[in-house]
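Re: [ENG-882] Designed sequences occasionally contain unexpected residues at chain ends

Forwarding the minimal case from QA. Structure tokens:
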């Protein structure tokens, strides 16, 4: 969208006097003109933002001498910093050499208490070899130390319950030989950590395609689209269509970056058309597995003992007989020339569908992209490999597999194929009135939230189906769909010791954990790497033959849960009962499906899957509980000072005697009342009882009865009165007007720039009009269309807005719009907000689009040198 701001100016309370003489009291002279410049404004700083006192940016102007003392930080903060074990140089994009200084350790003084966590995220640098360490000490005692490593960019230290509440020394170090690295250090409330995204959204999508939801009440929309904006490729059901960008809408871009940019611009235009309710790219997905590991199979199936499989099989001796599990994946291995499947699966496989090649034989041909891991075959084996005295057996060895191929070569697929497949499995068509499976295994992901996908899943849940999804292998709390859908059980992965795997995603959206393996660990001390062994195929004499292999990933954890869901389904079928997703959630949240530790956490959800416990609980019939939303309350003067909590009933029992108890002087609460079949209560912050910048935490207890059985739940509350507004500092900011088209490498180049420092918690900037004289100054701007952005260059490499650096975009980060500079007009009081965090693609931010290939914004480089502006307080740092 292009925006030209309103062209007007109001000077309030300004009186201009001219000199006067004689007695006339008047003069023909005119007051001097006020040059307001073409563009000026203010950049606010997000709460809690802090900058390392010796970033590379700062070291350039202090003779490369790192700070010797500790930097004091508030109770909650997001700090960006720089470290390097030594000095050196490397080439910039323009061929110039970038010189960096040594800064091997940063030390901070941080107030902390029991249970509080500090997190370090390593963003590396140009050479990518920096491994960082995090140490927390006090009074000569080490309270925790962690190191980042390849595949593990985030580490954290949490104080145990016996730790004193005091100031701690927090050190960030870089390993010897580690080059310049950017990092972010965070200490914040748990709810803030859940939503903390430090990377630009980078969901991949198919160029030139979009999923468009039409307004069915507007009969002319399709014909309008057909006039040149979009070509209908395929009807996805309901009001959803797969659309293709017409050839005339493309500029025949040759680079992938330009093609992606064109697609996103086209999607933005579609969203603005009358009759279009929504438009999103056709996102691609991938299998959620890591690299295969070559280890012997014999006696390595530790994962079944971890979920108490032997106990479960005593309660379900038929292994889930007659229950059907759809495995939406890469298909199954089929020996060449034989219409059958892997011999350890063949007996349990029933007809499926191939949505990649468009036929009814979902064969996995092996991948020509990297190693052939036969991902879908491995997943299916964990669910339902046959117990036949050979190879392995699955968790639900008596259940049936419905193979559905949605992933092609390289383990990649499109969101449209996934939506089509789910609609096929759920029986969402006029000719089929029942679903084709009872349980759906989704060992894939990496998608943002897509409404059409949500609708397809919700339809299946409405028909009694249970969906299980892999959380993802990015070691991040960023939501990955479809697992993060509220109608899907999101599964994180653990090693043989029951610890969260180093690669596993985590966060408030995780429901439970299951064995996914971790090749870097030996959690059960059996002398072997913790991997999951299951059915596969290997190449022999130029062709694939049936075999077994060890893999790791949340993909491997997910079929353990799907298998147990199949056992539960078979159990209730035998009792002529039903088991719905709502029933499963009730069992889960009451601690009946897992080794429930007593409270939910963001790593393992409600705990590690316990198959025997789940089957025992399911025998007792329906369990009814109250589930709070939100599950944790966070109050502050900069956010919400009050909150409404809804207690949702899960299960069909009778809830009674609901009573709230809290003994917190800084909190005011009401008793729960029944409103629209939900219990609701309100809480508010008593600010007079709060000391500024001190974190308060406590619990609300709710007791109730389920059909006369006493139950209770705990809701954590976190509160803070923040007074850091004037102390906020996100580092030197470079404010840029940049070209709206990236280069082939994904960089946007600055056409004008100014450098500003934080003053009383904000930045003020101003550009000048190009006066036509040479040399042209850095802050001079010519009329034209630009993106207005600002950010830090922490490592001094001439690029802003990289991960780990602050960034602001006009009008909102993630939703940048073109700003037009016109001759003789002034755009005043422009407002932006800078932050180290990045917007995410979610239900709360439906308009945000991905940034695949985004590299950052380039400062004006030496070969485009200009004279410094007269009013610039410091030189450029791009030399």
């Amino acid at each position: 969208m292009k925006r030209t701001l309103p062209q007007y100016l109001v000077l309030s309370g300004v009186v201009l006097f001219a000199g006067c003489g004689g007695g006339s009291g008047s003069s023909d002279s005119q007051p001097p003109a006020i040059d307001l410049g073409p563009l000026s404004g203010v950049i606010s700083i997000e709460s809690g933002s802090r900058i390392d006192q010796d970033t590379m940016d700062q070291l350039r102007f202090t003779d490369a001498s790192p700070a010797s003392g500790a930097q004091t930080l508030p109770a909650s903060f997001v700090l960006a910093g720089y470290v390097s074990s030594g000095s050196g140089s490397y080439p910039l994009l323009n061929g110039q050499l970038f010189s960096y200084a040594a800064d091997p350790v940063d030390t901070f003084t941080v107030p902390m208490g029991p249970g509080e966590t500090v997190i370090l995220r390593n963003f590396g640098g140009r050479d990518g070899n920096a491994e960082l360490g995090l140490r927390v000490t006090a009074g000569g005692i080490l309270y925790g130390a962690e190191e980042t490593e390849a595949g593990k960019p985030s580490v954290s230290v949490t104080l145990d319950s016996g730790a004193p509440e005091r100031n701690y020394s927090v050190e960030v170090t870089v390993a010897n030989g580690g080059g310049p690295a950017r990092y972010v250090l965070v200490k914040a409330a748990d709810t803030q950590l859940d939503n903390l995204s430090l990377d630009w959204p980078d969901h991949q999508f198919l160029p030139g395609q979009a999923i468009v939801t039409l307004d069915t009440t507007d009969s002319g929309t399709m014909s309008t689209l057909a006039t040149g904006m979009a070509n209908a490729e395929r009807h996805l059901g309901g009001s959803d269509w797969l659309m293709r960008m017409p050839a005339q809408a493309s500029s025949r871009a040759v680079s992938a970056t330009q093609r992606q940019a064109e697609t996103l611009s086209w999607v933005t235009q579609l969203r603005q058309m009358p009759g279009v309710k929504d438009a999103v790219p056709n996102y691609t997905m991938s299998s959620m597995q890591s690299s295969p590991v070559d280890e012997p199979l014999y006696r390595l199936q530790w994962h079944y003992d971890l979920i108490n499989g032997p106990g479960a099989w005593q309660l379900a001796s038929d292994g889930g007989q007659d229950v059907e599990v759809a495995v939406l994946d890469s298909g199954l291995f089929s020996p060449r020339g034989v219409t059958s499947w892997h011999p350890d699966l063949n007996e349990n496989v029933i007809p499926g569908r191939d949505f990649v090649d468009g036929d009814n034989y979902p064969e996995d041909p092996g991948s020509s992209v990297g190693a052939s891991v036969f991902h879908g075959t491995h997943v299916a084996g964990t669910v339902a490999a046959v117990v036949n005295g050979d190879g392995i057996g699955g968790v639900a060895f008596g259940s049936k597999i419905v193979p559905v191929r949605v992933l092609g070569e390289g383990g990649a697929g499109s969101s449209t194929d996934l939506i089509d497949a789910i609609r096929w499995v759920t029986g969402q068509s006029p000719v089929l009135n029942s679903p084709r499976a009872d349980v759906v295994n989704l060992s894939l992901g990496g998608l943002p939230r897509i409404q059409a996908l949500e609708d397809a899943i919700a339809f299946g849940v409405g028909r009694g189906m249970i969906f299980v999804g892999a959380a993802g292998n990015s070691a991040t709390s960023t939501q990955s769909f479809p697992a993060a859908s509220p109608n899907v059980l999101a599964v994180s992965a653990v090693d043989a010791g029951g610890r969260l795997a180093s690669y596993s995603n985590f966060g408030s959206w995780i429901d439970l954990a299951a064995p996914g393996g971790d090749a870097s660990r030996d959690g059960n001390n059996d002398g072997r790497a913790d991997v999951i062994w299951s059915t596969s195929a290997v190449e022999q004499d130029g062709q694939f033959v049936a075999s077994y292999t060890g893999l790791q990933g949340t993909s491997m954890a997910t079929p353990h849960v799907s298998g147990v869901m199949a056992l539960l389904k078979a159990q209730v079928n035998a009792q002529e009962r039903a088991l719905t997703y709502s029933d499963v959630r009730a069992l889960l949240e009451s601690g009946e499906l897992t080794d429930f530790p007593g409270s939910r956490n963001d790593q393992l959800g409600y705990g590690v899957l316990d198959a025997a416990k789940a089957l025992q609980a399911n025998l007792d019939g329906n369990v009814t509980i109250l589930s709070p939303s939100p599950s944790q309350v966070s109050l502050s003067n900069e956010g919400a000072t009050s909150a409404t909590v809804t207690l949702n009933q899960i299960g069909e029992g009778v809830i009674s005697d609901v009573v709230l108890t809290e003994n917190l002087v800084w909190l005011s609460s009401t008793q729960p009342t029944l409103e629209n079949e939900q219990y609701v209560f309100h809480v508010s912050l008593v600010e007079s009882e709060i000391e500024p910048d001190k974190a308060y935490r406590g619990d609300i207890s709710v007791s109730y009865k389920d059909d006369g059985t006493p139950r209770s739940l705990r809701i954590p509350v976190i509160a803070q009165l923040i007074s850091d507004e004037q102390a906020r500092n996100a580092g030197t900011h470079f404010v840029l007007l940049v070209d709206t088209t990236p280069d082939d490498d994904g960089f946007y180049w600055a056409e004008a720039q100014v450098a500003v420092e934080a003053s009383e918690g904000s930045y003020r900037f101003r550009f000048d009009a190009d006066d036509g004289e040479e040399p042209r100054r850095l802050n001079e701007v010519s009329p034209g269309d630009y993106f207005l952005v600002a950010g830090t260059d922490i490592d001094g490499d001439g690029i802003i807005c990289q991960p780990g650096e602050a960034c602001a975009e006009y009008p909102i980060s993630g939703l940048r719009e073109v700003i037009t500079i016109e001759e003789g007009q002034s755009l005043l009081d422009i407002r932006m907000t800078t932050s180290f965090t990045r917007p995410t693609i979610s239900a709360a931010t439906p308009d945000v689009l991905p940034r695949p290939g985004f590299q950052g914004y380039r400062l004006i480089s030496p070969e485009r040198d200009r004279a410094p502006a007269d009013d610039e307080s410091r030189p450029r740092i791009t030399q």
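QA comment: On inspection the terminal residues look reasonable. The first strand starts at residue 2 and ends at 3. Proposing we downgrade this to a documentation issue.
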